[in-house]
Design goal:
CATH class of chain A: Mainly Alpha
Strand content of chain A: 5-15%
Distance between the termini of chain A: 49 Å
Order of helices and strands of chain A: EEEEEHHHHHEEHHHHHHEEEHHHH
Mean pLDDT of chain A: 86
Structural class of chain A: alpha+beta
Shape of chain A: globular
Mean pLDDT of chain C: 83
Helix content of chain C: 10-25%
Low-confidence stretches of chain C: none
Number of strands of chain C: 7
Chains: A alpha+beta (about 400), B alpha/beta (about 160), C alpha/beta (about 150)
CATH topology of chain C: Beta Polymerase, domain 2
Largest sheet of chain C: 5 strands, mixed
Low-confidence stretches of chain A: 1-17
CATH superfamily of chain C: NADH:ubiquinone oxidoreductase Nqo5 subunit
Oligomer: heterotrimer
CATH superfamily of chain A: Cytochrome-c3 Hydrogenase, chain B
Number of helices of chain A: 15
CATH topology of chain A: Cytochrome-c3 Hydrogenase, chain B
Number of domains of chain C: 1
Radius of gyration of chain C: 17 Å
Number of strands of chain A: 10
Chain lengths: ~400, ~160, ~150
């Protein structure tokens, strides 16, 4: 066993190389007839990130085919939105992508504002961007912790929970809620920033820089973690484009697109940030891209806090909004990718049809392509690297 | 060592079997890592995290239902999910308890008007503690576990009286 | 990509369509039989990303919407066609594999039959569920959801 080499380079081919003697198959075993086993991974599984059910067809440990079966959380957000007033839809959308509620609310608010021609004050745009970037950090740390747990690293999860609690304290001071914010409304935001929150944010960011490097060292600097995720689950650029992937998953495959930069909204036209893109398309690249996104978010939050303008936090909108009949699509960059709301209005007080274009929905369709041919342990890691939230997949 | 000072040397402790077993059960409640929806992030992940800390109660998560005492139903149960919840409940060995966490598991929550949603998990499995909230704060979940511990302790007296 | 690139592509493919610019963007309306040739021409001509595909119940029929984007230049296009209730949804998965999941969902939630799809099973609900997203299917009323 001392001859086993761990190959962490990027070369294609087998990652584990056993000495020739150990690969010898005992007499008669190569004529053994074997069957493929269909194994249910989920819906209850410590690492399916929600109620995801993946059917794996296995030949020993190797996955021949995988099929994702969803719908265990289908709660009818799109149908129920048709019977809620426009101000009430935000409560439903918070619960769609529950790790990035503010992004979903903002997408809806943007769609309503563009349809109804409501002009949002500059300060509201800046507050929206600030809270969205804080929410992005909160979501990415959860992803980092659960991704580490998928690969077997139990400790970083508790470290990131400490960081997440600090972030949720700030978000609770601003919005009033830890997870279901109900803060971004059509026309602006619900309430102004409380006094003293900028000191809190700056103090947090100073500490968070070191915490982020610590998490990166614990996970990314760990040789075992690297061996688990390098060259695993490679998604090529063409596959990523064809399947309509979104977010960090797409950028790790070499597609340079970010809604904040290319179809800007809120305060992103005035902010200075980079969009990390990698070209390998494996789980390591997705990890690196999301870590870098967190650093860019910290950079953006500093600019937002330093440059927060004065003004109104919301425009004057009627109590019962009646946008004119028509359709509108608005997209934001949620932690998982391009999250879009396609709103169809008939002029009444409730939406006629609201379609939530969720990035995780399209990311999940890659499961069969990405998992087939890898081992079961790799399947877990690949699903973890896609960063899915079942709430927005099933809606 | 501190306990020895309390009882003195060569002393014996008498306790009824029911009390001993229920004391052991309520101080080491293992819950199934079964997060259906948003409540899982608050009640399973945050409440077990460093700030709110389940481990000081003896509460810990296990992956397999065969090793669990408590099932926290954290999220909306719909028609596709209900047979799964029932099967997992059946797989848990006795004695077992269920905590219905959040408005969705108690009565269907904000989604109760949708025909695909089951209005409360108590239509599928028997529930011991209902925790309101959307989502309940992690402190609420810890209070729920404390209530469950009281419920187990109250049951001890019933078992003793039944003998 | 010039603004009327989609016009050229569709005219070259000899697809009958109407194109308008609305508040939403550029909307192309055509018959369902022309969806596959139209999308094939658009995909080959630079609209390489299917952003979203969904269906709406308009009260008289079901309207399918394909939201396409040309990645270089970020041109967007909405292609719409109408299917009658319980009609046929022809899959375009070989042109845009991103349509695999949304087509199953649209066929299931609005009651259409899915053809040309490698896996035409239900996606979100169990067998026997009615098409929940149709306007004719009502959500539970106030009496039913009361806590008794």
């Amino acid at each position: 066993m001392s001859d086993v080499r761990l190959d962490v380079s990027r070369q294609p081919g087998p990652r584990w190389v056993l000495p020739k003697g150990l690969r010898r198959v005992p007499e008669g075993l190569d004529e053994l007839a074997t069957e493929h086993l269909i194994l249910n991974m989920g819906p209850q599984h410590p690492s399916t990130h929600g109620v995801l059910h993946v059917l794996l067809e296995l030949d020993g440990e190797e996955v021949q085919a995988a099929e994702a079966s969803v719908g265990y959380l289908h709660r009818g957000i799109e149908k129920l939105a048709e019977s809620r007033k426009y101000h009430q839809v935000g409560t439903l959308l918070d619960r769609a992508d529950y790790l990035a509620g503010l992004h979903t609310e903002t997408a809806f608010a943007l769609a309503v504002e563009r349809l109804a021609g409501i002009e949002v004050p500059r300060k509201a745009d800046w507050i929206r961007s600030l809270t969205m970037e804080l929410c992005r950090l909160a979501s990415h740390v959860v992803w980092a912790g659960t991704f580490g747990m998928d690969a077997g690293a139990m400790a970083p999860f508790l470290y990131i929970m400490r960081d997440r609690e600090a972030l949720l304290d700030i978000l609770e001071a601003i919005t009033g809620g830890r997870m279901m914010f109900n803060y971004v409304r059509p026309g602006g935001v619900f309430a102004d920033l409380p006094a003293g929150v900028d000191t809190k944010i700056r103090a947090f960011l100073d500490v968070f820089d070191t915490y982020l490097e610590e998490t990166d060292a614990l996970l990314g600097g760990n040789e075992i973690f690297q061996a688990r995720i390098k060259n695993v689950g490679v998604i090529s650029r063409d596959t990523a484009m064809a399947f309509g992937l979104a977010g960090g998953t797409m950028r790790a495959s070499g597609i340079d697109f970010d809604v904040r930069r290319d179809m800007p909204y809120a305060a992103y036209t005035e902010l200075d940030f980079d969009v990390p893109v990698a070209s390998g398309g494996d789980c390591w690249d997705r990890y690196v891209v999301r870590m870098e996104e967190m650093r860019q978010s910290v950079r953006m939050i500093r600019q937002l806090v330093d440059g927060m303008p004065e003004g109104d936090f919301t425009a004057k909108v009627p109590k019962v909004l009646r946008p004119p009949a028509g359709e509108m699509y608005a997209a934001v960059e949620s932690p998982r990718g391009e999250l879009g709301i396609h709103l169809v209005s008939d002029g009444g007080p409730t939406p006629y049809r609201m379609r939530l274009r969720s990035p995780a929905y399209y990311n999940l369709a890659i499961t069969d392509e990405a998992i087939a041919g890898s081992l079961i342990a790799d399947a877990v890691v690949i699903i973890g690297s896609l960063d899915i939230v079942l709430g927005e997949i099933d809606r | 060592m501190a306990l020895d000072k309390l009882t003195g040397e060569n002393s014996m402790v008498f306790i009824r079997a029911e009390q001993l077993l229920d004391l052991a059960r309520k101080n080491s409640l293992f819950y199934l890592s079964f997060g259906i929806a948003c409540c899982a992030i608050e009640g399973l992940m945050s409440a077990g995290g460093p700030r709110f800390d389940y481990d000081r109660f003896g509460i810990f998560h296990r992956g397999s239902p065969r090793q669990c005492d408590v099932m926290i139903v954290a999220g909306t149960v719909n028609k596709k999910m209900a047979p799964v919840v029932k099967r997992l409940y059946d797989q848990m060995p006795e004695p077992k308890w269920v905590i219905a966490m959040g408005a969705c598991a108690c009565t269907g929550g904000p989604f109760r008007e949708y025909p695909n949603v089951i209005m409360g998990v108590d239509q599928v499995i028997p529930v011991d503690i209902f925790v309101p909230g959307c989502p309940p704060r992690p402190e609420s979940m810890q209070y729920a576990f404390m209530q469950l511990q009281d419920k187990i302790a109250a049951r001890t007296q019933e078992r003793i009286d039944a003998r | 990509m010039p603004a009327s690139a989609h016009e050229t592509l569709l005219r070259d493919a000899a697809v009958v369509h109407t194109s308008e610019t609305e508040l939403l963007g550029t909307v192309v309306r055509l018959d369902c039989v022309n969806v596959r040739p139209a999308l094939g021409a658009l995909a080959a001509g630079g609209f390489d990303q299917l952003v979203d595909m969904f269906a709406t119940d308009t009260g008289e029929a079901i309207e399918l919407t394909y939201h396409l984007r040309a990645f270089s230049g970020f041109e967007t296009l909405f292609v719409k066609c109408t299917v009658e209730y319980d009609g046929e949804l022809v899959s375009v998965w070989d042109i845009y594999p991103a349509a695999l999941f949304p087509e199953r969902e649209a066929a299931e939630l609005l009651g259409m039959s899915l053809t040309g799809h490698p896996n035409p099973k239900r996606l979100l609900t169990v067998e026997g569920t009615e098409p929940l997203l149709r306007k004719s299917v009502a959500i539970r009323g106030a009496q039913e959801v009361q806590f008794s």
